[in-house]
């Protein structure tokens, strides 16, 4: 049996084809979890799973699985691959889709190669990794790993007022398998870096050894609507101005941090949202991240203190709702080492790194040894239509995944 490489044309063609599914009127890629456009993406992935001759399974949170379990394979714990195919608003075509389609590609290549795996090999597309429509993010893999009750997740109310469980039923992806029905032997996720490091250092492969902590909150500030022209500054209870002070507070804290703290206010809305009315209400989200749990807690505490003093100074009401909170995660040393060896064997430079983005791997790491492989993002751009990774890097990353999977699916047991 000669060791093959992946079918580059098939993988690149599928990434491009999936990238065309779910474009809005402005041509932006928008496949929000459990939406009509995401259904189209799901349907395409399911069609490719069937074409590959894999067994299809969908669990109750809508996670999709393509299962390769040759007849002579014992009922060993499966090797799990995958990522997600839901997107943010105005997404690139690689985030999530690259890892999901590469997992399928690797299975198809190993089947063609005639590999006789000692365990099933499964590729998953996890539901609602992005968390844009329903919080928290990485929801499907979190439920799968037992970190969130399935009924609580299905009851999640979206930013559009919809209920996740009903939407999954409506699009035909409310499966009947119980989340966690396959207990993975190990999990490997291939993903674009979505940051600037690999490109800046001219390194084609990242062996991801850990992933930073994430804190999502929604803040609501309430003041008084009043006339923009007649109300003296000293008499205002201006929710909009108070919100703006939080945004600059967060940026100043992150800039002066001695760790790679990042802070983002990605969503903000005012009421009544009229040019000549002082805002009576400001609602916004806060995304805080840091690789160090202690530092992340310090940033959360500093924000809480600031909101309290702001409320007194600006005479406004402040309420906070927690949307997601995940501690930093260490990945499996054995698999990380395997990734480094696979890169070396293919003559590719590789460096260890931390993931700035959240990924399904951080959830599956709760129930199985897990690690990630990164490839460079041009300009470090992601969550943006300009997201781009060179074909050569996409193919190289998928071949590293192939070699790691071949090892883990047979006798290789670093985990
Ligand atoms: O938010 C994240 O880091 C991921 O893209 N869901
Ligand atoms: Mn992703
Ligand atoms: Mn993403």
Outline the fold blueprint.
Elements: H1 8-19, E1 29-30, H2 36-51, E2 55-58, E3 64-68, E4 79-84, E5 89-91, H3 97-113, E6 121-126, H4 139-144, H5 150-154, H6 164-170, E7 186-192, H7 197-201, E8 205-211, E9 213-222, H8 239-255, E10 262-264, E11 268-271, E12 281-290, H9 293-314, E13 317-326, E14 329-330, H10 333-345, E15 350-355, H11 360-364, E16 370-375, H12 391-409
Parallel strand pairs: 4-6, 4-7, 7-16, 8-15
Antiparallel strand pairs: 1-5, 2-3, 3-6, 8-14, 8-16, 9-12, 9-13, 10-12, 11-12
Helix pairs in contact: 1-3, 3-12, 8-9, 10-12
| Termini Cα gap | 25 Å
Determine the CATH superfamily of the largest domain.
Zn peptidases
Quick one: overall form?
globular
- Series of secondary-structure elements, N-terminal to C-terminal: HEHEEEEHEHHHEHEEHEEEHEEHEHEH
Number of beta strands: 16
Q: Mean pLDDT across all residues, rounded?
A: 96
- Rg (C-alpha, Å): 23 Å
Q: Please describe the biggest sheet, giving its number of strands, its sense, and whether it closes into a barrel.
A: 9 strands, mixed
Instruction: Classify the helix fraction into a percent range.
Output: 25-40%
Task: Supply the CATH architecture of the largest domain.
Answer: 3-Layer(aba) Sandwich
* Beta-strand fraction estimate: 15-25%
The CATH class of the largest domain is identified as Alpha Beta
Structural class of the helix and strand makeup? alpha+beta
Tally of helical segments: 12
């Amino acid at each position: 049996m000669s060791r093959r490489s992946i079918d580059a044309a098939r993988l690149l063609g599928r990434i491009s084809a999936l990238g065309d599914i779910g474009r809005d009127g402005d041509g932006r890629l928008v496949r929000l979890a459990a939406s009509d456009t995401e259904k189209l993406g799901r349907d395409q992935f399911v069609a490719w799973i069937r074409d590959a001759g894999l067994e299809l399974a969908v669990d109750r949170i809508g996670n999709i699985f393509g299962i390769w379990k040759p007849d002579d394979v014992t009922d060993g714990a499966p090797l799990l691959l995958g990522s997600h195919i839901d997107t943010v608003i105005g997404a690139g075509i690689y985030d999530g889709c690259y890892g999901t389609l590469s997992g399928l590609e690797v299975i198809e290549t190993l089947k063609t190669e005639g590999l006789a795996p000692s365990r099933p090999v499964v590729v998953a597309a996890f539901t609602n990794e992005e968390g844009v429509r329903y919080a928290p993010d990485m929801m499907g893999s979190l439920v799968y790993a037992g970190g969130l009750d399935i009924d609580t997740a299905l009851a999640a109310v979206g930013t559009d007022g919809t209920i996740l469980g009903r939407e999954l039923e409506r699009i035909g992806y409310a499966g009947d398998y119980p989340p966690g029905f396959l207990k993975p032997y190990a999990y490997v996720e291939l993903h674009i870096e979505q940051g600037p490091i690999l490109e800046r250092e001219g390194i084609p492969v990242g062996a991801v050894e850990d992933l930073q902590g994430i804190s999502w909150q929604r803040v609501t500030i309430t003041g008084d609507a009043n006339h923009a022209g007649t109300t003296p500054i000293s008499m205002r209870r201006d929710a909009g101005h108070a919100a703006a002070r939080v945004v600059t507070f967060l940026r100043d804290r992150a800039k002066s941090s001695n760790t790679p703290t990042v802070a983002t206010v990605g969503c903000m809305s005012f009421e009544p949202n009229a040019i000549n009315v002082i805002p009576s209400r400001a609602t916004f989200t806060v995304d805080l991240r840091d690789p160090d749990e202690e530092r992340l807690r310090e940033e959360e505490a500093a924000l809480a203190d600031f909101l309290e003093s702001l409320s007194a100074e600006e005479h406004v009401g402040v309420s906070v709702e927690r949307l997601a909170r995940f501690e930093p995660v260490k990945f499996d040393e054995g698999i990380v080492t395997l990734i480094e060896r696979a890169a070396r064997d293919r003559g590719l430079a590789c460096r260890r790194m931390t993931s700035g983005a959240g990924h399904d791997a951080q959830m599956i790491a709760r129930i199985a040894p897990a690690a990630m492989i990164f490839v460079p993002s041009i300009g470090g751009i992601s969550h943006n239509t300009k997201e781009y990774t060179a074909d050569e890097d996409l193919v190289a990353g998928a071949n590293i995944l192939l070699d790691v999977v071949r090892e883990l699916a047979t006798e290789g047991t670093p985990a």
